[in-house]
Design brief:
The chain contains 9 helices and 15 strands. By secondary structure, the protein is of the alpha+beta class. The longest helix is centred in the N-terminal third of the chain and has 32 residues.
């Protein structure tokens, strides 16, 4: 009996640009290998979850377009596939909250504040992450800041310098300043040197680098969700590009680097919001349509598997991309956010 032809899966965004989900999957396999190399006893189960992440994807088909219906997601914070999914989900949620915030507070003025400290050695990273998040909570409680800031959203990001082998943790904060903040001689206004001094006081360190820029708004007066500033607040907590080395056989991440990162972000609140933004709740996700309802509406389903075989130890046999599976191949029924292709 002939089976359905297999075709490779590519993910295109709304502008037709290809998203490198295959690259993320290959980095996930490298992450699993690094976890096992770092400590197989401690991280063995975690490594297996990452190796199996997104091995099988199930889509609905409409008008020659695929929309992701369900898949297995390992939900490990350092998994590149899950980080990419989480970044997209967080962007959509924050964009909706920001739009509603703009309608409720049309005169609030958005800015992007980036707060840094000096690069740190591996043994210092976990304590520095604690310092950053604690210092930010202290910063937003200072009277000069509460007088000027209406609401905020902050996220933690960690980059890695492969030459010096050190880490650069920093905070991106979207802030909405009160009406009149940018007026001439405004008592609310905080110049860049003011932010530097406030951040130094919050951290207890010598003045570091603080960058602040005003963000644009669309014709309705709402923060433009297409601006880089909004993405800065939700992008990958750990940039895979800085931690992974491409080899002749795929990707590699140093086990000691991964172990340092894992310890540094374990149990952390990587994103947070406060003030007027916290009062705006994320919208409830739409009700998930059942398979029976899809069948009644004559909506087709297709399953794709990653390559021919991917075993739990990260060995790849066959093409390193998702291919359409035969119609009778089973699929995991684990819901994840929609992803158009």
């Amino acid at each position: 009996m002939m089976t359905a032809p297999r075709k490779a899966l590519q993910h295109l965004d709304s502008r037709g640009k290809r998203r490198d989900w295959t690259g993320a999957k290959l980095k996930a396999i490298a992450t699993a290998a690094a976890y096992r190399a770092a400590d197989a006893e401690t991280h063995g189960k975690r490594a297996e979850r990452i190796a199996n992440c997104a091995n099988q994807l199930r889509f609905t088909v409409a008008n020659d377009q695929l929309t992701l219906r369900n898949a297995y997601a390992c939900k490990v914070r350092t998994c590149p596939v899950c980080m990419a999914l989480n970044a997209r989900r967080a962007f959509a949620i924050l964009a909706a909250r920001v739009a509603e915030h703009g309608r409720q507070h049309p005169r609030a003025l958005p800015v992007l504040l980036t707060l840094t400290v000096r690069n740190v050695e591996p043994v210092q990273l976990a304590n520095t992450v604690t310092l950053l998040t604690t210092a930010f909570r202290r910063l937003v409680r200072y009277r000069r800041v509460t007088r000027a800031v209406l609401g905020w959203h902050r996220s933690l990001e960690i980059t890695f310098n492969p030459i010096r082998r050190d880490y650069h943790p920093h905070i991106h904060a979207l802030m909405w300043m009160r009406d009149g903040y940018f007026a001439a001689n405004s008592p609310l206004y905080l110049a860049q040197p003011d932010w530097v001094q406030l951040w130094a006081a919050a951290t207890g360190y010598p003045p570091g680098i603080v960058h602040i820029k005003r963000l644009g708004r669309d014709t309705a007066g709402v923060l433009d969700a297409n601006l880089d500033g909004l993405f800065e607040a939700v992008k990958y907590v750990v940039k895979p590009a800085g931690f992974y080395e491409q080899t002749a056989h795929g990707w590699r991440v140093a086990p000691e680097v991964l172990a340092t990162l894992h310890h540094a972000i374990a149990g952390r609140r990587l994103r947070d919001s406060g003030g007027s933004l916290r009062q705006i709740k994320a919208a409830e996700p739409p009700r998930r349509v059942s398979d029976d309802e899809l069948a009644a509406a004559h909506v087709a389903l297709e399953t794709y598997v990653f390559g021919e075989t991917v075993d739990t130890w990260g060995e790849i046999f066959g093409p390193d991309y998702w291919q359409r599976a035969p119609p009778d191949e089973p699929a995991a029924d684990v819901p994840v956010p929609p992803m158009s292709t």
